Structures are given as C-alpha cells and as structure tokens.
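Record type: monomer structure entry
Structure origin: computed from sequence
Chain ID: A
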Amino acid sequence: MASKNGLYKASELFQAQAHLYKVMYSFLNPMSVKWAIDLKIPDIIHNHAQPITLSELVSALKVPQSKQTCVQRLMRLLAHIDLFAIVKIDKDNKERYALTPTSQLLVSDTDHCLSSMVRFLNTPILVDSYNHLAKWTSGEDLTVAMESDSHVVRLALRECRSVFEGIGSLVDVGGGTGNTAKIICEAFPELKYIVLDLPQVVSGLEGSNNLSFVGGNMFKSIPQGDAVLLKWVLHNWSDDDCIKILKNCKAAISGKGKGGKVIIIDIS
C-alpha cells in the first residue's frame, strides 16, 4: 500500500524490484524453448523412450562437458515452465527429463508438431521489430510493422509453398492495402487475388491484372474463391464472431463447386 505522501515502503519496493527483474528476464522462456528445438531435445527424449539423465542428454547432444552445467540450468528453467518434467527413479535417485504434453507438440514428424511456429515467432526480424514499439507508436511511419509482416509472409511461402499451389483464386479477408497480396501475387502470377476490407480502407486503391480490391464486411459476406486467407484476423474477435467469419468463409469456398480451403495465419 502507498503511504500518505505517495511513497512506498522499502519492503514494497524490494518486492517490486524482484517483480521487475522477473518480467525483464521472461525473455529467456521463449529463447530457451527455441534452444531446445534447435538442439532437437524433444526428439532426443522421445527417441530415448524413457526419461533421460543429464549425462545421457549431454552425450546425445554432443556438447562439451564444460557446457553440462549450462544445459542443466536451461533444462531446469524449461521444467519450471512445464515444457519438460523432472522425474527421479528410486534405483539411483538421479534427475531425469521427460516430455510433457507441451513438449510432445515439439516432437518432429508428428501431425501436431508446432516447432516451425515456435521458430517463426522467434525469428530475429520479428523479435527485433518489438524493440521499436515506442518509435512506431509515436510516429506515422508503419515501416517496422510492414517489414515484420512481409517477413512473415515470405517465410510462409518458403516453408509452406504447397499450401498456395494449385489455387486459381484467393480472397484475402482483411487484407488492408495489399501488402501481403503483392508478395503472394509476385510468387504466383497466375493467381486471381482479391483483397476484401472495409470500403474506407480500400477506397482509391488500384489493382492489377490479377489483383483487385473489394470493399465490404466479412461479417456479412465474403467474395467467392478457391481459397480464403485470414492473416492476423481471428485473434481480434470473440469466439462467436470468429464462428461467423468462418461460416462466411465456408460459404465463399463452397460456392465454387469443388473443394476449397481456408488458410489461417494467426496467434492465439
């Protein structure tokens, strides 16, 4: 509690200092998860078929013995955030590391592997863009956000190009001024690309031979196409609103008379 003169007690400030340090060092969590993926630690534990000791893990990683303490510290941090579990077996009482449901999602070659998403969210360009939030917020320039967004799209095209192949027409719902459209149209010049956004957003924008802008409301209707792209859209809306949007997406691709797809790029 604050005192009458607006100052805080020393004990409260010490607690606040500890909290501030905890917040500032929280960047280690995602960096440590990326470290585990880069070294394929979830795969190593999975293939070991049982909880693995520190010495066994270090041996499998083929890292110098001098780094064993660092590996142990990082594994304990990851266990603290429930990425791995630390277990002990009675026969020797040694610490062993086991997978949790979360790290199971990082095992390669499974239909639920999310390693690519974790790597994507920790790419240097995307992470560094958040170092410029103050400048971006105070000014009119959208360069930082646009560069980060462009990197996202180019990464998706490189890693998941097959998702866009074979599509004759694509509707980009909430596509704004067409930053994503230009990148995808460059990669797929035969694709008919439609950007749907609010009338005031697309007013005055000029398309090209394969790119057009349509003013509308995604809650009312979505232009028909072979596929619909929702990039950074759904996280802004409630579950009920997302259901409305997805139903309109279904109607947009169902009307083509053949199987379509909804491509979602988002974060929860």
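Annotation 1: The mean pLDDT is 87.
Annotation 2: The first helix runs from residue 10 to 24.
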